[in-house]
Structures are given as structure tokens and as C-alpha cells.
Amino acid sequence: GEAGDTPSPTGTASPTATEPDDSTPTATDGGGNSTTPTPAPTESGADPTPTPTPGSAVDLVIESEGFSAWVLAEDESGEVAPTDESNPTMTFGVGTRYAVENNGWDTHPFALRAADDSPLLSQSADGSYEDDDAVDWVDDGGTFAFTMTDDLAADLNYYTCTVHSSMRGEAEAN
């Protein structure tokens, strides 16, 4: 054994194994953490009784006398019928728009009918003039509106409650 004969360690130390990289980003949850707030629906200030053109309609208020009669409680024009009479004759002007508040509509639906009892305009049935653009029928339950036309006037005979036949009066137009 001479000096220098001693075998020297061969090779180099093997590098330590690399640890798996745990810093790989993981998939996100689809953005569920960052929702965009939805604006709350705004309250509409819609008038519950729309009049197609404000100030253009004659305002009427009808009420029931129990189950026996209609009463015209208010007539802005003073020309449709006397107020506070039972089942008065109602006279409508051709070309005039009427906005009618029916204070008993849920129990007493109002209708304008022809002589053969068919509905022309009705709060409880399909009247033959309800789709007429010139009549422009609007029914919101408590209030309805229409324009008296020549054709509607020609067919008009009476008004009634569609539930109580005693609530009936003559209707005409001029």
C-alpha cells in the first residue's frame, strides 16, 4: 500500500431528489366568490288608473245600491245622467272618451250591451267592441275607459251588472 494507492471515492454525491412542486395553482371555483351585485328592481310609480291622455276623458263614478240598482255618483260633464238616481238613462256623446270608476266592480261588473243582450263592452266577458282601436277599451278592474264611436253608439241599448239583472238602465248616445 503505497500512498496514493488508496482508492479515492469515485463519483460525486448524487443530488438530492427534488421535492414535488406544491406551488402549482389550482383551478378556481368559477368566480363564485366575486359576484356582481344585481341592482334591485326599481319601484314603478305607475298610476293604477291610467287615462290614455290625461285631461281628455270625462270622469264618471258608478256605485251600486245593494244588488238592485246602479247609481251615477259623479258625472264630471253633467251630461251623462242625473246623479243619485237609481238606474238612470245614461247618454254618451259620440267622440267622447269616458273613464269610469266602478266602486263595486268585484261584485258588480259593468257592461254595455246591445238589444240582443250581447256584450259590447264588459268587465266580465269579451265584448264585441273591446278590440276596436277607435273605442280603445281599457279595463283595470276598478276603472275602465272607452271612447264612444258611431258604430258602438248604433249598437248600444242598455247597461247592466253582469251578475244582477235588476241593475240595468237604458243607454244611448248622441
What are the main properties of this structure?
single chain; 174 residues; Immunoglobulin-like; 5-stranded mixed sheet
Can you walk me through this structure?
- It contains one helix and ten strands, in the order ββββββββαββ.
- The chain has 174 residues and is mainly beta.
- It has a domain of 117 residues: Immunoglobulin-like.
- About 14% of the residues have low confidence.
Mean pLDDT figure: 81
List segments where confidence is low: pLDDT < 50 over at least 5 consecutive residues: 31-54
Element pattern in H and E? EEEEEEEEHEE
What's the arrangement of strands in the largest beta sheet? 2-1-4-8-7
Can you identify the CATH class of one domain?
Answer: Mainly Beta
How many distinct helices?
1
Distance between the termini: 143 Å
Q: What portion of the residues fall into strands of 2 or more residues?
A: 25-35%
Work out the helicity level: under 10%
Structural class assignment: mainly beta
- The name of the CATH architecture of one domain is Sandwich
This entry's quaternary arrangement is: single chain
